[in-house]
Amino acid sequence: MPRPYKGHLLTEEQKKLAGDNYRLALKFVGQLYSQRKIREWEVEEVKSYMYWQICTCAEKYDPEQLNEEGRKATFATMAFRGFKGAFQYYREYEQRWRGRYFLTDFLTTNDDGDRESFRELRDIRGEKKKVKINEIKSIFGIVDLSLMERQVIDLYFDQKFTFVEIGDMFGLSRETIRNHYKAVLEKAKTYIDENGLELKDFIHS
Description:
This protein has helices at residues 12-20, 22-34, 43-60, 75-92, 98-106, 147-158, 163-170, 174-195, and strands at residues 118-122, 128-132. By secondary structure, the chain is mostly helical. It has 2 domains: 7-97, no CATH class; 133-199, Arc Repressor Mutant, subunit A (Orthogonal Bundle). Strands 1-2 form a two-stranded antiparallel sheet. A hairpin with a 5-residue loop joins strand 1 and strand 2. Helix 2 (22-34) packs antiparallel against helix 3 and helix 6 (147-158) crosses helix 8 (174-195). The two termini are 26 Å apart.
């Protein structure tokens, strides 16, 4: 996910310095894209990282400070070094969680029949996959569920009953069954977050 906006933390002079040099960030991102180090759908996200970094450089830059060679470091030199570090952070930290992000986003409350619908997701490498919720229902087998919640999942996924039909079996309304199903999804999301799971942990095709 994009890092937070930082411009509001700068002085007016620092904001001007960052704004006047934002082209450096765009140039760096363009180089990454032309070298195929990032995909098209990552461009805007990486731009936000580089903007954060150029704001950080503007905040710390001292034109009178000398580098290791005893020379005054230019803002551009400082910025490009910072861009490299920011991109490494993006690759080594944020990308580890991309699969988990899309997996938790996938686990939304579905209406009857949506168990069979396809959704297009990107895996941790950015490659697109068409996934059915049936394909990741194995997550429910390792989540701590109540007896009622597990019965709802089994009836809904394995025996293909609708929420209305399941409700009739237990003398409950469709909405009550749907709420049980929603509670299961929330437990699954929590389990994914706490254990750092990724989409590839459930999709093996």
